[in-house]
């Protein structure tokens, strides 16, 4: 299966993508995680992306599209993939269409996670991520690790993202409304969109997502 996950910052895309990718046996491709990995390794791409990310702005398409394409062309993605955080504007959605067409493949669905702005602010404020693996996501109240500060899955150290400040979150929400929301209509017009409420327990949202994707 080839799936795109959309939703505002803090909707639970990374959390659900990790679980859905396991269930569907396809790789979880997160452009946010790819940028963060480049930043922690101080690559030229990471250095370029960091200022945009810390400010909550989208990283320019010239950098993002090539990076996402390279990842989609890895052998493990031949059987399908779950895209988390890409595409994020109409230019990227059209570039993705071209990449898929060049390879004779198509999307099976676009899953939109719906959640209120108050809830995303609560989720982001308490989020903790694993230093070893960006897919290992926790929350100090809602999704606690067994030992505070330690990843349940690999024992890695948990940390708070540098773009989870109040100011950067405000900009990320603005970027989402002005640049990302238009892709929801784009995919609805293609008959690919399924929208689910992302409230409730993590496991309940996963069940809802699987049901929606099965159609
Ligand atoms: P990215 O890393 O993609 O961040 P984002 O879209 O802002 O989304 P988040 O990671 O904040 O949230 P999420 O929806 O994954 O929620 P999570 O599962 O963590 O992008 C970061 C930056 O990179 C961008 O601002 C941009 O600069 C750049 N970038 C990335 N892709 C780009 C692109 N394509 N183009 C240009 N720039 C790009 O959950 C949040 C919290 O809630 C967690 O603590 C979790 O434990 C908790 N939680 C999850 N589900 C539930 C639930 N059901 N109930 C209670 N709590 C829950
Ligand atoms: Zn971990």
UniProtKB/TrEMBL annotation:
<feature type="binding site">
    <location>
        <position position="172"/>
    </location>
    <ligand>
        <name>AMP</name>
    </ligand>
</feature>
<dbReference type="Pfam" id="PF05191">
    <property type="entry name" value="ADK_lid"/>
</dbReference>
<keyword id="KW-0418">Kinase</keyword>
<comment type="function">
    <text>Catalyzes the reversible transfer of the terminal phosphate group between ATP and AMP. Plays an important role in cellular energy homeostasis and in adenine nucleotide metabolism.</text>
</comment>
<keyword id="KW-0963">Cytoplasm</keyword>
<feature type="binding site">
    <location>
        <begin position="85"/>
        <end position="88"/>
    </location>
    <ligand>
        <name>AMP</name>
    </ligand>
</feature>
<dbReference type="GO" id="GO:0044209">
    <property type="term" value="P:AMP salvage"/>
</dbReference>
<dbReference type="Pfam" id="PF00406">
    <property type="entry name" value="ADK"/>
</dbReference>
<feature type="binding site">
    <location>
        <position position="31"/>
    </location>
    <ligand>
        <name>AMP</name>
    </ligand>
</feature>
<dbReference type="GO" id="GO:0005524">
    <property type="term" value="F:ATP binding"/>
</dbReference>
<feature type="binding site">
    <location>
        <begin position="137"/>
        <end position="138"/>
    </location>
    <ligand>
        <name>ATP</name>
    </ligand>
</feature>
<dbReference type="InterPro" id="IPR007862">
    <property type="entry name" value="Adenylate_kinase_lid-dom"/>
</dbReference>
<feature type="binding site">
    <location>
        <position position="127"/>
    </location>
    <ligand>
        <name>ATP</name>
    </ligand>
</feature>
<feature type="region of interest" description="NMP">
    <location>
        <begin position="30"/>
        <end position="59"/>
    </location>
</feature>
<dbReference type="InterPro" id="IPR000850">
    <property type="entry name" value="Adenylat/UMP-CMP_kin"/>
</dbReference>
<dbReference type="InterPro" id="IPR027417">
    <property type="entry name" value="P-loop_NTPase"/>
</dbReference>
<dbReference type="GO" id="GO:0004017">
    <property type="term" value="F:AMP kinase activity"/>
</dbReference>
<dbReference type="InterPro" id="IPR006259">
    <property type="entry name" value="Adenyl_kin_sub"/>
</dbReference>
<dbReference type="GO" id="GO:0005737">
    <property type="term" value="C:cytoplasm"/>
</dbReference>
<feature type="domain" description="Adenylate kinase active site lid">
    <location>
        <begin position="127"/>
        <end position="163"/>
    </location>
</feature>
<comment type="subunit">
    <text>Monomer.</text>
</comment>
<feature type="binding site">
    <location>
        <begin position="10"/>
        <end position="15"/>
    </location>
    <ligand>
        <name>ATP</name>
    </ligand>
</feature>
<feature type="binding site">
    <location>
        <begin position="57"/>
        <end position="59"/>
    </location>
    <ligand>
        <name>AMP</name>
    </ligand>
</feature>
<feature type="binding site">
    <location>
        <position position="161"/>
    </location>
    <ligand>
        <name>AMP</name>
    </ligand>
</feature>
<protein>
    <recommendedName>
        <fullName>Adenylate kinase</fullName>
        <ecNumber>2.7.4.3</ecNumber>
    </recommendedName>
</protein>
<comment type="similarity">
    <text>Belongs to the adenylate kinase family.</text>
</comment>
<feature type="binding site">
    <location>
        <position position="200"/>
    </location>
    <ligand>
        <name>ATP</name>
    </ligand>
</feature>
<keyword id="KW-0547">Nucleotide-binding</keyword>
<keyword id="KW-0067">ATP-binding</keyword>
<feature type="binding site">
    <location>
        <position position="92"/>
    </location>
    <ligand>
        <name>AMP</name>
    </ligand>
</feature>
<keyword id="KW-0545">Nucleotide biosynthesis</keyword>
<feature type="binding site">
    <location>
        <position position="36"/>
    </location>
    <ligand>
        <name>AMP</name>
    </ligand>
</feature>
<keyword id="KW-0808">Transferase</keyword>
<dbReference type="InterPro" id="IPR033690">
    <property type="entry name" value="Adenylat_kinase_CS"/>
</dbReference>
<comment type="pathway">
    <text>Purine metabolism; AMP biosynthesis via salvage pathway; AMP from ADP: step 1/1.</text>
</comment>
């Amino acid at each position: 299966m080839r799936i795109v996950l959309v939703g505002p910052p803090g909707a639970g895309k990374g959390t659900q993508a990790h679980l859905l990718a396991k269930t569907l046996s396809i790789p979880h491709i997160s452009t946010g995680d790819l940028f963060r990995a480049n930043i922690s390794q101080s690559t030229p791409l990471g250095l370029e992306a960091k200022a945009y990310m810390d400010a909550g702005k989208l990283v320019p398409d010239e950098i993002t599209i090539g990076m996402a394409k390279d990842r989609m062309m890895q052998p493990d993605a031949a059987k399908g993939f779950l895209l988390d955080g890409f595409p994020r504007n109409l230019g990227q959605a059209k570039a993705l269409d071209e990449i898929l067409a060049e390879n004779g493949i198509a999307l099976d669905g676009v899953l939109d996670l719906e959640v209120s702005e108050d809830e995303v602010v609560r989720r982001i404020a308490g989020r903790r991520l694993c230093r070893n693996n960006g897919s290992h996501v926790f929350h100090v109240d809602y999704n606690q690790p067994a030992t505070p500060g330690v990843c349940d899955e690999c024992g890695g150290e948990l940390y708070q993202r540098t773009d989870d400040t109040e100011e950067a979150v405000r900009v990320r929400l603005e970027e989402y409304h002005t640049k990302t929301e238009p892709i929801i209509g784009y995919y609805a017009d293609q008959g690919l969109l399924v929208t689910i409420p992302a409230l409730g327990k993590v496991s309940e949202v996963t069940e809802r997502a699987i049901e929606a994707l099965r159609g």
